[in-house]
């Protein structure tokens, strides 16, 4: 994407009050720096190893988002600095994040990943498990995690009808659960949904945080 196009995208998102996470997985430090220079501060990676390697080579005011499947034994490597973990898809993972955040004397913001795609390959919490986590979370003191909202990933398809249906499903789950826990979500919850191919639909359906990679950085090889 050209600089002009990127500036237009940033402007367009800002106008709609939608936060951008620039998904920089597989992209070089220099490519990230170029986008940083245009004012972007939120970057997303899906592999711990890659993120930890890039971290010291880039400015310290970048907000790093973990958006990919996260193994519990790797949480400790990102716990000292990660800004937001989008991909919490089990109670065990949430507990580990709480523990590792505690060791670093910090509170880590997280999103619960909701299962919306019919594809089995896409992970996420089915509604009963989602509720169970929120129930336990409100009753126990997890002092070091802050559940800020929800993340969703749709089926990889060109069929706009399916995408829209899944996003609407996501929104209704988020609305239902956040209304059930008003204390937890006194602020508007973060609704992280929409990628390069479907972010416009996601915003139309109510997304307030999009994760855009290939549109900004070019295709991943
Ligand atoms: C790679 C990835 C994205 C970005 O995908 P693009 O289609 O390149 O925009 C968004 N979210 C997650 C979880 C990803 O793994």
Reconstruct the topology from this structure:
Layout: H1 3-15, E1 19-23, H2 29-37, E2 42-45, H3 48-54, E3 63-66, H4 75-78, E4 84-88, H5 91-103, E5 108-114, H6 127-139, E6 145-152, H7 160-180, E7 190-192, H8 199-204, E8 209-212, H9 214-217
Parallel strand pairs: 1-2, 1-8, 2-3, 3-4, 4-5, 5-6, 6-7
Bound molecules: pyridoxal-5'-phosphate (PLP).
Bound ions, cofactors and other small molecules, one mention each: pyridoxal-5'-phosphate
Number of helices: 9
Strand content: 15-25%
What is the CATH homology-level superfamily? Alanine racemase
Task: Choose one word for the global shape.
Answer: globular
Order of helices and strands: HEHEHEHEHEHEHEHEH
Give a count of the beta strands, DSSP E runs of length 2 or more: 8
- Give the CA-CA distance, first to last residue: 16 Å
Query: Runs with pLDDT <50, length 5+?
Result: none
- Whole-number average pLDDT? 94
Q: Write out the strand line-up for the largest beta sheet, numbering strands in chain order.
A: 7-6-5-4-3-2-1-8
Radius of gyration: 17 Å
The largest pleated sheet is described as: 8 strands, parallel
Give descriptors for this structure:
221 residues; alpha/beta; TIM Barrel; 8-stranded parallel β-sheet; 9 helices; 8 strands; 41% helix; globular; binds pyridoxal-5'-phosphate
């Amino acid at each position: 994407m050209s600089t002009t196009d990127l500036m237009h995208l940033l402007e367009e998102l800002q106008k709609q009050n939608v936060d951008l996470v620039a998904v920089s997985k597989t992209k070089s430090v220099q490519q990230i720096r170029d986008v940083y220079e245009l004012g972007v501060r939120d970057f997303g990676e899906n592999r711990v190893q890659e993120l930890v390697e890039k971290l010291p080579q880039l400015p310290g005011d970048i907000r790093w988002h973990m958006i990919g499947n996260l193994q519990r034994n790797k949480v400790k490597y990102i716990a000292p600095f990660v800004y937001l973990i989008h991909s919490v898809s089990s109670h065990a993972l949430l507990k580990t994040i709480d523990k590792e955040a505690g060791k670093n004397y910090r509170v880590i913001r997280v999103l619960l990943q909701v299962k919306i795609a019919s594809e089995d390959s896409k992970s996420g919490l089915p509604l009963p498990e989602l509720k169970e986590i929120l129930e336990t979370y409100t009753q126990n003191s997890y002092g070091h995690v802050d559940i800020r909202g929800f993340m969703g990933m749709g089926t990889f398809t060109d069929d706009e009808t399916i995408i829209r249906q899944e996003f609407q499903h996501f929104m209704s789950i988020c609305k239902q659960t956040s209304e059930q826990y008003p204390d937890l979500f006194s602020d508007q919850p973060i609704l992280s949904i929409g990628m390069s191919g479907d972010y416009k639909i996601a915003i139309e359906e109510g997304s307030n945080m999009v994760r855009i990679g290939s549109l900004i950085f070019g295709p991943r090889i």
